[in-house]
Design a protein that fits this description.
Four copies of one chain form a homotetramer. Chain A is α+β, with helices and mostly antiparallel strands and about 140 residues long. Chain A has three helices and eight strands. The mean pLDDT of chain A is about 90. At the B-D interface, strand 5 of B face strand 5 of D. Strand 5 of chain A pairs antiparallel with strand 5 of chain B, so a sheet runs across the interface.
């Protein structure tokens, strides 16, 4: 199935629904129904000692990718909000481009659950962080 | 028991170990062994639509408070790192001063587990977010 | 505020809503609005090598206590279901009576979030396991 | 890479390290390095009202599959223990055979992180529960 939003529409939704995400230096790699892949180029301000990307930056990036994955199913819905998130940090997240791959595991009427893997570009089999997240979405009027 | 670090020392550790935390506009309210309370004054840049504090900001603040709680036990140890974190968002986090209360549940040789409640100042019984976090600490040479 | 159910009513709800819980050898220690304390006497069948209580047994006991805490607020509602749970195992759970203290952190119309600490009786400051759980409850007709 | 244990060896390890798992009516479907697939046939005793499989049963089954995945990498190590687990219940787990697919995301010297999807046999794209788990393993003497 195809995504209910385009990359252009996703950027517009961010302005309405998640400005902290809109401010991130990211690109949309792909959007399919229930699946979103984004790319982030981290800079010096995101680094901790030893040159690693900070946890809050990874959290924000994962949240952004999950938000995109939800929008691929529900379309324009800026009021979707995170209700819970679990992250495991797996490897030292060195500076450099990162891909976030967000995939929905459940598409409920109210609750969407998905996981997000963040990995260095070209090393998708060695993720630096893994998230599981739930989004709550307002009741939908039309059949999605 | 008393804390192994003072508020001044904690700010110094942040410069060495968590610059993203050092940049946050926070105050140390109290430090005891296994317990840290910090206060954050959020500003417009941290807000989402509807005037709520962003998830990554809350995550960063909780991580900072947990880092402080770990330091109250192990002392100066900038190399402590978060291995996992689970957050539940409980209420709309409106703008205004927030308190984070981080409490250690387990003080292991390698792994420290704690929870962190973030609440508006004066409304500690109505937290906006609740975290459980694990920190990994390097082996300690001396008996803590 | 007082609990919306008594210990007797809770046992009845279990028969209707959670038979696996009804089969556990537990006592209700106390029920208040948003807070439930249960006591479990574990037996040999629940033990792993080294004499520790198994993870699934602790999970089932925590789920039971959280279910009770939800019922203290919503009253008779066997259709409440767990949507997510996070557990951290903190210490070796040796055989012997255990207390589970479940406390609601959020009492929403649809979602209830709480944490549960399981500790040996008399050592409540040294929990063996800590849970955060979300329960989904059907919409309520009357004001609770 | 090939698994460090066979299905026969895994059953032996369970007797030494996880008797609650040994008692489950399961089959080993496949073992590869970092990946274990198990099959469970649930019976009436595992069901909640409405004919759904109980949460503790799913938890125990996921724990068993993750234990197997850890053993595929470290070989015989009955002292591996779960340190944290997060579960999201995704769909009603009706009675019938279930597959658990456990996959390691991180293979550290001390900590192993993996996720486990439990789905009805033949409907692997519609999981009923999703877990993320960490296992702590004793230091290994030989290079794995």
């Amino acid at each position: 199935m195809t995504s209910q939003i385009s990359a252009e529409q996703f950027r517009q939704i961010l302005h309405d629904g998640m400005p902290s995400g809109a401010a991130m230096p990211f690109e949309v790699v792909s959007l399919e129904s229930g699946l979103a892949v984004l790319k982030l180029t981290t800079g010096p301000a995101d680094l901790r000692p030893g040159g690693t990307v900070s946890g809050p930056t990874l959290f924000g990036f994962a949240d952004l990718a999950m938000y995109a994955a939800v929008m691929t199913v529900v379309g324009y819905e800026p009021m979707a909000v995170t209700t819970d998130a679990t992250v495991h940090f797996l490897r030292r997240p060195l500076a450099g481009a990162k891909l976030a791959r967000a995939r929905l595991l459940k598409q409920g009427q109210r609750l969407m659950v998905g996981d997000v893997a963040i990995a260095p570009e070209g090393q998708e089999d060695a993720p630096v962080a893994h998230f599981v997240m739930t989004y709550s979405v307002p009741p939908r009027k039309t059949n999605p």
